[in-house]
Design goal:
By secondary structure, this protein is of the alpha/beta class. The protein has seven helices and seven strands; from the N terminus they run ααββαβββαβαααβ. It is elongated and about 110 Å long. Helix 4 crosses helix 7. The longest helix is centred in the N-terminal third of the chain and has 42 residues. The chain is 48% helix and 12% strand. The N and C termini lie far apart (125 Å). The protein folds into two domains: 43 residues; 171 residues, 3-Layer(aba) Sandwich (Lysozyme-like), CATH 3.40.80. It has a seven-stranded mixed beta sheet with strand order 6-2-5-3-4-1-7, with helices on both faces. The N terminus is likely disordered.
């Protein structure tokens, strides 16, 4: 019995001295979870940075799109009785806004159409200015002469034709910005205010400019934007002749 008890004590003592082996599977699992968490955190941060960069770029492009031109390109029509009759404009009491009604046509294409009337004799039509799809401004008729644009108001107004892509006549950002700046420039030059800017519709009832006729709030905002440009003295335009 003594021998048995001694053997048991040795066995117990030996078991106590043995160390537990580490559970490598648990360790690997913990490290794997940590790595996954790190990867997810890095991915989320990267996505947030990309979204922020995309928003910043979109804002930059929007600001660029909304920038008006700083020049008027003078491309006067050849004097002729169909588009540039040479009738003296004795006074300027207002500005009449038009839209081209031919989606996608550029400012120079519309200018050349007016020029071509001297040969085609198709109709009588022209405009003092044309604002293009990219905001460019072309002058077709001197401001001291009448244009064939606004019916009975030809004799005392300046006319502005505006290009557009949309079938509903809505203007692109650059076109709109240049329309505002050109109106402010002409108002400043000839002693007018935003109240003196009218639509072709207001003269004849024609659906022109279409978008401003069908969206009165947009027309009201346009005039408010011209008023703001006048208040901020944002009317400087270089004349390229």
């Amino acid at each position: 019995m003594k021998f048995y008890h001694k053997s048991m004590r040795r066995l117990v003592s030996t078991r106590k001295k043995k160390k537990r082996k580490p559970d490598y599977r648990k360790i690997i699992l913990v490290f794997a979870v940590i790595i996954v968490i790190i990867i997810v955190a890095v991915s989320v941060h990267s996505c947030q940075q990309k979204r922020a960069a995309a928003k910043a770029e979109a804002a930059r492009l929007a600001a660029e799109d909304a920038k008006a031109t700083d020049a008027i390109d003078v491309e006067l029509l050849t004097p002729n009785k169909y588009s540039r009759p040479g009738i003296a404009l004795k006074q300027i009491n207002g500005i009449v806004m038009h839209y081209t009604a031919n989606p996608g046509a550029t400012a120079i294409e519309n200018r050349n159409y007016f020029e071509g009337l001297k040969d085609s004799h198709q109709t009588h039509a022209s405009s003092h200015f044309i604002v293009g799809l990219d905001g460019e401004i072309i002058q077709c008729i001197p401001t001291k002469e009448e244009a064939y644009a606004s019916n009975e108001r030809n004799s005392d107004t300046l006319s502005i034709e505006c290009c557009h892509y949309a079938k509903d006549g809505k203007f692109e950002s650059k076109t709109y910005a240049s329309m505002v700046k050109l109106c402010a420039y002409l108002c400043h030059r000839f002693g007018l205010t935003e109240k003196d800017i009218i639509r072709h519709y207001d003269v004849t009832g024609k659906d022109c400019p279409k978008y401003f006729v069908e969206h009165p709030k947009a027309w009201k905002k346009f005039k408010a934007d011209v008023k703001e440009a006048l208040a901020n003295k944002d009317w400087e335009l270089t004349i390229n002749s």
